[in-house]
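Q: Could you predict the 3D structure of Transcriptional regulator, LysR family?
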Amino acid sequence: MERNWDDLRLFLAVAREQSLSAAGKLLRLDPATLGRRMARLEKSLQTGLFVKSPQGYALTDAGVQLLARAEAAEQAMRIASAGVAAPSDRLSGQIRLGAPDGCANFLLPQVCARIVTDNPDLDIQIVALPRVFNLSRREADMAIGVSAPTAGRLLVQKVTDYHLHLAASESYLAAHSAIASVDDLAAHRLVGYIPDMIFDRELDYLAELGVSRVPLASNSVSVQVQMIRQGGGVGVVHDFCLPAAPGIRLILEDAVSLTRSFYLIRHMDDQRNLRLTRFAEMLSAGLRAEVGRAEAKT
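A: Sure. Here are the predicted structure tokens for Transcriptional regulator, LysR family:
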């Protein structure tokens, strides 16, 4: 059984990544070795599982059938490993969490540090990327998003609201004309997202202000905050970023005040996994508390 599950585990990675090299990186296994393991699995099953091409590994009909069975086995293993531990028991093992980089940089370090302090045998991996995570391919055990997905077999829970305002550095404001209204922004340099790399409409803040040109742009919240800190211009910032960004001042607070939300997203198959459910509860409570604490300082 152990050997069979190990073969399925490797097969899942190749099927999801559609590449020996990408799956090898994920598994920390040499691609050539992984290729031999897949060939051995196909031989043992007496059927081809992949169509190999320069573009990667695509599943055959037999591969699609095995994928469904392998994912069912994976879920059974997750449930078994979760066990029936009492809620007071500490968490252990590894949990990978995907999050947009603003949340990952300014909130999750504090939240996750507290969780692992209380659960010293737990390993938390934060994958900070400005995009949507594919939980069906198991890129992460769960993810935080800025909108609630409506497709896929997902569990979606609203965690908390957060707030954003226009801001600029003290040095920029001292060197440029006063900003008394939204119309005054036309005379100022704007900092924001790269327009064609906005992966969620909830992040298109400047469009709401009628801004069409962004002279200083990045797909990263952290980079935008640093641009503003360095006197690059005026931009929309998360209020929870400000305690970590001295020298930035909010402007036009009454005229421009945005509210967005964080959602915790999990795969539907994990709803009976007690371990992941307990971690989700800790994470949600920690995020709510950290957003409240950080915003109270602004």
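Q: Anything worth pointing out?
A: The first strand starts at residue 50 and ends at 53.
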